[in-house]
Amino acid sequence: MKLFDSLLLSVGVALVIMGIYEVMTAGLIYAYSFLMPAILVFLWLVYRKRSKA
């Protein structure tokens, strides 16, 4: 795993953790701004891995 892929993974995990916290404290509507970018980051990571293979 290259450095950029590791950074993408860590950013995605951080966004998921912040999204879970927002779901618990404020609700799902407020967590949307954290969870949707996290999904996009994970999809981008999968796309990068499949394009290399």
Structure, described:
The protein has 53 residues and is an all-alpha fold. It has one domain (3-52). 91% of the residues lie in helices and 0% in strands. The radius of gyration is 13 Å and the shape is elongated. 9% of the residues are buried. The model has no long low-confidence stretch (mean pLDDT 95).
Short description:
With 53 residues, the chain is an all-alpha fold. It is 91% helix and 0% strand.
Write the layout of secondary structure elements.
Layout: H1 3-25, H2 28-52
Largest sheet: none
Helix coverage percent of residues? over 70%
Radius of gyration: 13 Å
Which segments are poorly predicted (pLDDT under 50) over 5 or more consecutive residues? none
What's the β-strand tally? 0
| SS field, number of helical segments | 2
Report the average pLDDT across residues.
95
Q: How many domains is the backbone divided into?
A: 1
Order of H and E elements? HH
Class by SSE composition: mainly alpha
State which percent range the strand residues make up.
under 5%
Top keywords for this entry?
mainly alpha; 53 residues; 91% helix; 2 helices; 0% strand
